[in-house]
Structure formats: C-alpha cells, structure tokens
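Figure-free illustration: sequence to structure, shown twice.
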Amino acid sequence: GVQTCALPISSAGDALAGTASLGLVAAAAVGIGVAVGGLWRPSTAAEVAAIFVVLTFLDQLLAQPLGLPDWVRQLALTAHFGAPMIGRWDAAGVVAALGVAIGGIAVGAAGFARRDVAR
C-alpha cells in the first residue's frame, strides 16, 4: 500500500506568516534588555537578552529529547506560540510575548527616567 504523511498540509503563506514568531521572540528579548538596562545597568542589558534567547532555544531543542518534565519545556516563551509555521497560533503565547516586550520597555523607561542622566 501507499503510505501517507501524517503531517498537516499548509500553504507557503502560513509558513511565511509563521516567521513572525521570530519577531515575537526578538520583541520579547528587546523588552527584557530594556528592562535590565533601565533598572540595573545598560552594560549588561544585551548579555541578559542574549542569555534569554539562548536558554529559550536550548530549552526547546533539548527538553524533550532529554526526557525532562513538561514544565521545563513550558519555561520557554516559544513553547506557547502553538505551531505558527503551519498556521496554528496560540493567542495566549502571542499576548505573553507582546506583554514581555511592552512591559519590559515600560519598566525600562521608568528606570531610565529615575536616573539623573544630566550629571
């Protein structure tokens, strides 16, 4: 007999739109970086944002093959996006990423506003 593929068929447009998930991760990283820079030290903001991105990637890549508990995989923000490359988005994950981005920028802006940068 002929074997069929169990993967869902999606359009190129779904995959193209799915790349927006990379933008959501980037926006969240910016929010984290701005928050760290505003509340702590701007010199460490990029490092903390980079650590967030790397840990998210490693969590998604290794948690399941290493047999780690599901809650470990759920720590990654990207675990909550659904399956964007095939057109299935999880709205809660999108809202969470935007919340981290907007909230981080707001917290960072408040932190920068507290400083007396004129000195």
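We now fold a second protein in the same way, so the two outputs can be compared directly.
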Amino acid sequence: MKVIKNRLEGVAFKATPNKGGIIKPIFIVMHYDAASNSTSAINWMTNPTSQVSAHIHISREGVVTQLVDFNVKAWHAGKSEWKGYKNLNDHSIGIELQNTGSQEYTDIQIVKAMEVCLAISGAYPIQEIVGHSDIAPGRKGDPGKQFPWAKFKCLVK
C-alpha cells in the first residue's frame, strides 16, 4: 500500500463535501465511527448536513475507503489540542474504524489500519499517532480501550 498524489493507491475513493483547506499533516488521529455498519458511517461522513468526515474509513472486514485527499482538511477532530497544536483538523489525518465503541477490533481491521498508517507515515512527516481521546480529553473516548496502541505507536519514528 502506498500514497500517490495524496491518495492511497488501490482503495475506493468516495468524496465528501465535508472538508476544506490545504494541510501539511504531522499527526494521525485514530477514531471509531460508533456506527453499526460501514455503509451508514460512510453515508453519514459524506452527508453535508453531518458536518463531519475523515480521510479514511476502515470496515470491520478490512475494507478501506478514502473520503478526503491527505493534503486537504477533513472534519474529524473538532475542538482539540495536542503538544501545543490547536484545532488538530489543521495538522492531522483522521482514520475512522468501524466500531460501536464496545466491540473488539477485528484482526483484519487492525492489519489494514497498520498498513494505512505505514503508507501515510512513509509519505508525510508524521510525528505521532494519537487517539481522539488524547486530543479531546473528557469530550471523546475513541478509539477506546480495546484499541491495540502498542501495535501503532512503533509505526512512527
């Protein structure tokens, strides 16, 4: 898996109107979508009334869908702060994993998420992979306690 012209090669692209502005990403923010299925999650993130999006969605079956080019701001972080940076949408790539918040992540989903993070880290100067809960403490709990952080923290040097 690799990034070519700000998109993952070989994955479906479903454009969302919920985006804006050019960014130079230095963080990856992991989320869960809180949806019961990937279709409803993607439909929500591509609906202009939702005012939310992410760069990538990964289903429980490991299907990767890109919604926003990596050099364009997606609306995934909301009010956020991390290591002196505010409004993390301006500095990060958002990855949504299909999960209600109480489920274990599937093995294929985690493998695909790791592949995506490695491809992004190889194409951009990513400093750290963080959770929504890290950048919006007290407001957000995702990606949750089931997320295997040890597998992800080592993907960025």
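Summary for the second example: The longest strand covers residues 27-32.
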